[in-house]
Structures are given as C-alpha cells and as structure tokens.
Design goal:
267 residues; Spore Coat Polysaccharide Biosynthesis Protein SpsA, Chain A; eight-stranded mixed β-sheet; 10 helices; 15% strand; Glycosyltransferase_2; Glyco_trans_2-like; Glycosyltransferase family 2 protein; Nucleotide-diphossugar_trans
Length: 267
C-alpha cells in the first residue's frame, strides 16, 4: 500500500520459470499488496514456481496470446479491489525495483498511467537492445507521436502502471490478443485524455528474456501503424475504429466462461 492506495502487480507469464523467482525477489513487498500471475500455457515449470512463491495464479486453458493474457491479468486485478495495477514482466527484463516510484506517481494523483521507458536516458542500447529494435522503436514512436498528437519517449515498453479508473474505463476487450494490444491501449488512453508519466528504466536483454522474432516483429510493426492511423482518424473526426468507440466492451463485461482460465492457487 502507498498513500492509502492498494497496489497489485500483474505478471503475464509464458515460459518464465527461469526468471520468475528473481523478478519476484526484487518486488518491494512493503508496497505491493498482491501479485497476480496468469500463465498462458507455458511449456516449462512457470506454474509450479508461481505456486511455490505463493502468487495468486491463474492458468489459461489454451494459449491466448500476449494481449489475451493481459486482459485476464487486469480483469483479475480489478476483481481484487486494488487501486493501482502495475504490469511487471516476469522475464526480468525490467527492474522490479521501480514499482514504488511508478505507483507513487499515481497514488499522489499526478498521473493516471506511468510507463517505464527504456529510451529515456541511455539504458536501451547499454542493456543490450538489438540495434534493429532500437531503430524501429524510434521510428514507430515518432510516427505514433505525430499521428495521435502526443509526445512519449516510447510506446513499446511492457512496464506499465495504471489507476483503477483507467482499467475500468477503457474498452480493452476490443483490443487484439496479440502484441499490438499494448499500442492500442496507449492510443485509447491518449484519446480518453488520461495523464501519462514516464520514468527512465534500465533494461536487460539475455537469452531467457522474452522477445519476439523478426517475422512477428514485422507483424507487430504493421499493427502499430494501423493503431496509430486509427488514432489519427478519430482525432481528426473522420472515423472511429472499433477499439476507440465509447460503447466498446470493457473488462467488467468479461464473464468467467469467456476467460477460459482456472484459478490454481490463491493467497
């Protein structure tokens, strides 16, 4: 808890057994009230490690993709009643120690969303981000800033903190179940007028850290362009894509049967 606000960390997990314990060991337990892990049909011992660590753990009955995993993460966090929800990847690519700083910026009312940016400062390349990913990150971010009329250092970080209001308001069920979910969500946040803050975040690239291959990176890139164009069309008043419509489906409309997950441990 921080400033009287309860904090939930959510972890969308896929084959994270090798790094999960180290990630959890660096979470600031004086601030974090609950940790929710959603396993997306991992082929390793992720679930067993999560149970041993006492995490509030859910298992998808079939692989639903990165975006689908996040939908379950946020839905379960909201069911728990916490005020601030922070997504921490269990692959130890981002420093869990920044949870306190990110939660604080929301708890004191300065921002509704806080992003851990790999681009602010000099952390990305020093941390081992491949050059092609760095260049594509900078290009896509510049394109997105231009089209959606905002200014962020990057749109592609997986380290994110949200107020409860943000997760209750956005039509997240209209977003993709794939990696472009992250970008669609940021466009939704910007178009709804929520306040976004950024903190510089060191990052690490190593074999166990999650990464998508070049082919899927290209698919993601085209999805990012489509989301940005959709944001521009909505901003200009020409047309509003489904994921930006005010009547889009929210997490509160996600029934237990649709979630296709099993609660396998709880604290």
């Amino acid at each position: 808890m921080i400033e009287g606000k309860r904090v939930c960390v959510v972890m969308p997990a896929y084959n994270a057994a090798a790094t999960l314990e180290q990630t959890c060991s660096e979470l600031p337990r004086d601030v974090v009230d609950r940790v929710v892990l959603v396993d997306d049909q991992s082929a390793d011992e992720t679930v067993a490690v999560a149970q041993r660590l006492g995490l509030h753990t859910f298992l998808h009955r079939k692989n639903r993709g990165y975006g689908g995993n996040q939908k379950t993460c946020y839905a379960e966090a909201l069911r728990g009643g916490e005020d601030i929800v922070i997504m921490v990847h269990p692959d130890y690519q981002y420093s869990p120690k920044l949870v306190t700083a990110m939660a604080s910026l929301i708890a004191v009312g300065e921002f509704d969303v806080v992003l851990g940016s790999r681009i602010l400062g000099v952390g990305a390349r020093r941390g081992g981000m491949p050059l092609y990913k760095y260049i594509s990150n900078r290009f896509l971010t510049a394109f997105e800033n231009l089209l959606v009329g905002y200014k962020l250092s990057e749109y592609h970080t997986g380290y994110r903190a949200f107020s409860r209001e943000v997760l209750e308001t956005l039509p997240l069920l209209e977003n993709s179940d794939d990696f472009v979910f992250d970008n669609q969500m940021l466009v939704q946040i910007i178009r709804r007028g929520f306040r976004i803050g950024e903190v510089t975040c060191p990052t690490k690239y190593f074999p166990e850290a999650s990464s998508i291959n070049f082919r899927r990176s290209c698919t993601y890139g085209f999805g990012v362009l489509a989301a940005s164009v959709g944001g521009w069309l909505d901003r200009m008043g020409f047309w509003t894509p489904r994921f930006l419509r005010r009547d889009g489906r929210r997490l509160s409309e996600l029934g237990p049967a649709e979630m296709e997950r099993d609660e396998i441990s709880s604290i």
